[in-house]
Design a protein that fits this description.
By secondary structure, the chain is mostly helical. It has 20 helices and no strands.
Length: about 425
């Protein structure tokens, strides 16, 4: 009996290894001959995302029962559309910035900037980029459905496309195992419930991945409008300048600049300059539309967000949390990531993902504030999931990698519940939390 059991265990382990090997090393020619809906690269990311959205739906329905009433005049928060206590899932998913997006979807942007009591520009819709709310508004007009229905559903549906293209990008550029980890870890990241809320994370992730895919495919003519849409979705397009530069440098280094190298170099320089210039597109539109120079900058100041380098804020945050040890760990963490970015483990990602992996975290540290939103901003830093994939395949625990990945899902689900309860759903206004 003992021998039989041991042999069974060995066979089980071997069959599991064969299954993992087959999963991570697919016959791509045979896969392409299958109907698209049977391809693993199609149904897997959509299935994982659907499971995560069902979980968010259940958690949101349960937790929305605890939301307090939000009448107009509520302290510490702007309320344009009052809500009763326990408003239901869809209404809870339009909290915070969702109300501002609703103002834009229903009424557009104001021609005159509102003034606060002290004379400066007050909080107003011009702080929010237009693609998501105007798209929601157009759907509302066509369907007659209210914003609280359209916006969360629109955000969720965009997320399906984002996960599909994220899997496709990583699968093509790095490998099947890394693509699996990227989608699973992103769908079950602590702040991923925001993909189901009236926010722009799903749209921004979709556009970032699309730009990287187009760059990798050398579809430069399509990169131009994709960058434009990204620049009017979230203020992150400046981080694409190093990505385009990395793409061009690698092609030059490999002697792969095509039949007209000079034309290619000038084209890449123009594309990088274009991406940089798009950073100023929305502020310029705001200034022209309101006939107010620096209108966007002054609007952001109403949220106490200054348009300057904010590295010192992160340095101070580390000290506030953990003192000098926190600052030391922060320096070591940045150094470790920089070391990893200079090894072959990250070079195999390709210049597009590699460039974004370095540029976007640098953008977060240098440009964004240390508000709780930093957890949400990290959703676009998907290359960190590739570090997780590398770590799980280290020889010490490689055979357990799928169990460890399942553990990440469980831990992530717990964190998602906590984030949804304490950040997006408003149970009280004493914690000064903001998603």
């Amino acid at each position: 009996m003992t021998v039989t059991s041991a042999n069974a265990a060995v066979r089980s382990h071997l069959s599991e290894s064969r299954l993992a090997h087959a999963l991570e090393n697919p016959d791509r020619d045979a896969e392409r001959r299958q109907p698209f809906y049977r391809r693993f690269a199609f149904w897997f990311p959509l299935a994982v995302y659907a499971v995560s959205r069902i979980y968010v739906l259940v958690a949101g329905i349960v937790l929305a029962r605890n939301q307090i009433a939000l009448p107009i005049g509520t302290p510490n928060i702007r309320i344009f559309f009052p809500l009763p206590a326990s408003p239901g899932y869809l209404s809870a998913m339009t909290n915070w910035d969702g109300q501002w997006y609703r103002v834009i979807a229903e009424n557009g942007y104001p021609a005159v900037l509102p003034r606060a009591g002290w004379g400066g520009i007050d909080m107003n819709p011009w702080a929010f980029f237009p693609v998501f709310p105007l798209t929601a508004g157009a759907i509302m007009k066509v369907t007659g459905l209210p914003f609280v229905v359209v916006a969360p559903i629109l955000s969720t549906l965009i997320g399906f496309a984002a996960m599909y293209f994220l899997f496709k990008l990583v699968d093509q550029a790095v490998g099947r195992w890394e693509a699996i980890v990227a989608v699973v870890a992103t769908c079950f990241y602590i702040a991923s419930p925001v993909f189901s809320a009236s926010y722009t994370e799903s749209l921004a992730l979709l556009m970032v991945v699309v730009v990287l895919l187009l760059l990798r495919a050398r579809r430069y003519a399509w990169v131009v409008p994709a960058l434009l849409v990204l620049s009017l979705s979230r203020n992150v397009v400046i981080a694409m300048v190093p990505v385009i530069t990395a793409h061009a440098v690698v092609r030059w280094w490999q002697g792969d600049e095509g039949p007209h190298p000079k034309r290619f170099r000038w084209g890449m320089a123009a594309l990088a300059a274009y991406a940089g210039a798009l950073t100023f597109l929305w502020p310029k539109i705001v200034a022209i539309a309101t006939d107010t120079p620096n209108a966007y900058e002054e609007t952001m100041l109403a949220w106490n967000i200054q348009t300057k380098v904010k590295l010192y804020m992160w340095w101070n945050l580390l000290y506030a949390y953990w003192g000098i040890w926190g600052q030391l760990l922060g320096v070591l963490g940045v150094a470790a990531f920089a070391w990893f970015m200079l090894t072959k483990n990250s070079w195999r990602w390709g210049p597009e993902i590699w460039g974004w992996a370095g540029a976007y975290p640098a953008y977060i540290i240098l440009v964004t504030s240390t508000t709780p939103s930093r957890v949400r901003y990290a959703l676009l830093a998907f290359p960190f999931t590739l570090v997780i994939a590398w770590f799980l395949k280290l020889r010490w625990w490689e055979r357990w990698r799928y169990w460890l990945l399942a553990g990440i899902v469980v831990v992530g689900a717990v964190q998602m519940w906590w984030w949804l309860e304490h950040y997006l759903v408003i149970e009280n206004l004493t914690d000064d939390l903001y998603p």
